[in-house]
Structures are given as C-alpha cells and as structure tokens.
C-alpha cells in the first residue's frame, strides 16, 4: 500500500506543477484583440471614394482580413499582416488602399460595392475580433438633371421665339412708318403742285 500512496503523492505534485505552468503560460500570453468600428453605416454615390474605418489594438502581430458580402455573393477583398505582406484579390487590385490601423479605402465605388463589409483581426496567438460596416451606394439621379436640361431647352426655345416675334414687330413697324412717311410726302407734293397750278 505504501507504493500506491507515493505514486498518489507524486501525481498531486505533477498535477500542481502542470496547473501552475498552465496558469503562468496563460498570464504571459498577450490578452485579446479589441476592434472599434466608428462608422458602421456609410452612404456613398457612384464613382465616389469611401473609407472603411476601423481601429484595432493587440499585443501581438495581427492579420487583418476584409470580405464583402452582397446579393452577388461573398468576395475576399484583402488580407495582410502588418509589416509582412498584403494580399489584394484581383477584383480589387487597383481599387483598394490599406492602412496600418486596419482600415481600407475603396476607390471609384459602383452599385455592386453596396452590401456588408466584414473585417476580421486575428492575433498571432489565435484571438479574434470582428467588425461589420454596411455600405449603401446610390446612383446620381440623372432624371433631375434631364428635367433641368429639358426645362432649359424649353426656355431657350421660348426666348428665341419671343426674340423673333419682337424682330418681326420691329420690322413691320419700321415698314409701316416708311410707308406712312411716303404717303405723307406724296400728299404734301400734291398739295404743293395744286397750289402752284393755281
């Protein structure tokens, strides 16, 4: 029976040492990732540049990944590790700028860029933080511009018609005055002739 008690005593010691080592390792491991999304909703118009802004903090080296989810499907935009590499997907190759704080800028957005943008920050020790930004993209309302253009064309046409009408009135008045002047001159000549004959 004595050997069994000795084994039991060593097991307790080994268990205690293992527990202390695990607690020490847990205390030394950097603690977690925090991620802040200051603007969770963004409204943009077609051809505009937008900033998907986030701010993260962690003790280790982080890997940042952005994905876009819309009615057209899920697309990986970019993944990078600070100071190591940047892997931008071919769809977004010339349209994305990355920043050290985890933010990205999308250039020349279109209607297909509307949707949900998910960012994942993964610490080298395996801790994760997630964030979401909703982007709404609107078209420039060409109907309003079309209405203004049609209204401008209509006013220009009315102005042209009024100018032509005024020119015709002026011309008619000038002709009428000329004719009246001729009549007056001829009547005066007749009266002078009659007086001479007398």
CATH superfamily of the largest domain: Immunoglobulins
CATH uppermost class of the largest domain: Mainly Beta
**Rg from Cα:** 43 Å
Please give the CATH architecture of the largest domain: Sandwich
| Strand segment count | 11
Unreliable segments of 5+ consecutive residues: 1-7, 13-30
State the helical fraction.
40-55%
Topology-level CATH name of the largest domain: Immunoglobulin-like
**SSE run:** HEEEEEEEEEEEH
The coarse overall form would be: rod-shaped
Strand content: 25-35%
Q: What's the number of structural domains? A: 2
What integer is the average pLDDT? 81
The first-to-last residue Cα distance is 176 Å
| Count of individual helical segments | 2
* Category from helices, strands and their pairing: alpha+beta
User: Going across the major beta sheet, what is the strand order?
Assistant: 2-11-10-5-6-7
| Sheet with the most strands, sense and barrel status | 6 strands, mixed
Short overview:
The chain is an alpha+beta fold and 198 residues long.
